[in-house]
């Protein structure tokens, strides 16, 4: 594992460290008062949501201060590199989503496969027989949306049975080797129930974007994150952003771990950890007029974060090529508290647990009795200071992401928790990650199960630093250091 500490003078030092669960916890010192004073009323008002978006072709965007979508990172990279290679092995196509026989609800659907090849994949197309058995075929170019995943999003005009398959070509000489998958059948119901879905609740329990009505530990443990990231690679100017995060029980005293999205911790385009990181739990209950510069009118006060923990696949790549690793953590010490009440953050807020087991996946719809019924939550800046949520049955977008297809949470909710199905369990199983750039509904959340998310959490728990930075510090974890 590499550990990166960025000090007050911008000097970066890498050194190797072994992660041990029993590692001594030395207080991480940050200049709390300087960070608190940094967030003046003007700076807080100038902070904007740091939300990432994809268009239907797989290109990445971020919304600028003027509200316009700005190109971010790059289009999903093609693995093709250099001269064509000598190779006779075709690509391998696997993990179709949706699977054969799936019942799909709604007109908008995403189709994806994983494609691997030892010399690189040049192109993937998705072919449809519409309707099934008609002998009428239509082909669409797929986009490399993340890792080995290639996908295409389509809008159906007619309900019925459809067949689909993938065709892949590699970068080998003489035009490359090609592979064709078997046909997979799906049933599409553009009006709702999806044929094989749970008919019990239909859309009756759908919530697209509403204030959380029940308060309680869910609201107190979740909060708004203020932080800065550089505006360019030279890191001379920094801009303020907002995200959401949730307090997680780390079984230690004097500190806690906050789970959020990786894009709220590390700037993958300009290659820097966030600085001046401030966490405000339960800001929905502020006695002030929305977000201001006064921690004393927030019911629990504010805490300054000490350092972040992210995966090396997030830091070494750029969105959207790092989508599967959009999960991260901040470490916060009790003594870095400002405002009313106790400085013991876990006692003040209550805590969530992280659920690294595979969650429940259902058919599209919104039935609160369905085990896949999921609530996505966060502090949308347009609804300041309200704590907002969406709720519906959770589906699988692709091999990297879960999907809430009607979620309308807006900017600032990134990093907020996903919980299912029983809110009293207080378990986070994903976080708000990205939506579509054209304004169509939907929110993706990274998979914590079967990934390095638990390893990163263990690193956050075990790591301590005496660095005196202002929060511009962090730990980059390599998958090779994970069990």
Q: What does it look like?
A:
This protein starts with a strand and ends in a 6-residue tail after the last strand. It has six helices and 36 strands. Helices cover 8% and strands 39% of the residues. It is globular, with a radius of gyration of 23 Å. Strands 18-19-20-25-24-23 form a six-stranded antiparallel beta barrel. Strands 8, 10, 11, 14, 15 and 16 form a six-stranded mixed sheet that branches. The chain has a five-stranded antiparallel sheet with strand order 17-28-27-31-33, with no helix packed on it. It has two domains: 19-72 and 208-481, no CATH class; 92-189, Sandwich (Immunoglobulin-like), CATH 2.60.40.10. With 483 residues, it is mainly β.
Descriptors for this entry?
36 strands; 2 domains; mainly beta; six-stranded mixed beta sheet; six-stranded antiparallel barrel; globular; 483 residues; Immunoglobulin-like; Ig-like_fold
């Amino acid at each position: 594992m590499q550990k990166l500490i960025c000090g007050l003078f911008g000097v970066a030092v890498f050194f190797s460290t072994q992660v041990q669960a029993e590692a001594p916890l030395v207080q991480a010192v940050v200049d709390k008062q300087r960070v608190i004073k940094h967030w003046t009323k003007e700076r807080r008002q100038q902070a904007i949501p740091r939300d990432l978006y994809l268009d239907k072709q797989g290109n990445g965007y971020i919304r600028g201060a003027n509200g316009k979508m700005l190109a971010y990172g790059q289009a999903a990279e093609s693995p093709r590199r250099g001269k064509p290679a000598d190779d006779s092995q075709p690509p391998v196509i696997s993990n179709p989503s949706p699977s054969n026989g799936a019942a799909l609800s709604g007109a908008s659907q995403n189709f994806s496969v994983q494609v691997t090849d030892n010399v690189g994949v040049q192109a993937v197309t998705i072919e449809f027989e519409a309707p099934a058995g008609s002998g009428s075929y239509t082909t669409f170019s797929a986009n490399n949306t993340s890792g080995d995943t290639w996908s295409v999003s389509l809008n159906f005009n007619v309900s019925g049975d459809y067949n689909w398959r993938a065709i892949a070509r590699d970068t080998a000489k003489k035009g490359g080797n090609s592979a064709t998958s078997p046909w997979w059948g799906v049933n599409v119901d553009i009006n709702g129930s999806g044929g094989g879905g749970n008919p019990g609740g239909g859309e009756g329990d759908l919530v697209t974007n509403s204030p959380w009505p029940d308060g309680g530990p869910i609201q107190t443990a979740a909060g708004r994150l203020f932080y800065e990231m550089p505006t360019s690679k030279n890191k001379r100017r920094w801009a303020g952003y907002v995200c959401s995060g949730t307090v997680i029980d780390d079984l230690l005293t004097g500190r806690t771990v906050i789970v959020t999205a990786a894009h709220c911790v590390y700037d993958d385009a300009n290659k820097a950890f966030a600085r001046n990181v401030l966490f405000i739990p339960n800001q929905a209950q502020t006695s002030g007029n929305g977000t201001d510069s006064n921690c004393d009118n927030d019911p629990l006060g504010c805490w300054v974060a000490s350092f972040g923990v992210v995966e090396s696949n997030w830091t070494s790549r750029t969105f959207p090529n790092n989508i599967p690793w959009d999960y991260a953590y901040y470490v916060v010490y009790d003594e870095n508290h400002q405002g009313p009440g106790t400085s013991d953050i876990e006692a003040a807020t209550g805590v969530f647990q992280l659920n690294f087991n595979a969650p429940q996946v259902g058919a599209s719809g919104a039935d609160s009795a369905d085990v896949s019924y999921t609530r996505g939550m966060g502090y949308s800046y347009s609804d300041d200071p309200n704590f907002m949520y969406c709720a519906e049955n959770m589906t699988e977008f692709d091999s990297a992401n879960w999907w809430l297809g009607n979620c309308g949470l807006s900017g600032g909710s990134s990093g907020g928790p996903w919980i299912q199905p029983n809110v009293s369990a207080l378990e986070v199983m994903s976080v708000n990650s990205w939506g579509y750039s054209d304004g169509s509904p939907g929110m993706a959340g990274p998979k914590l199960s079967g990934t390095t998310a638990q390893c990163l959490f263990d690193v956050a728990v075990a790591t301590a630093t005496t660095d005196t930075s202002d929060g511009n510090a962090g730990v980059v974890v390599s998958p090779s250091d994970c069990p």
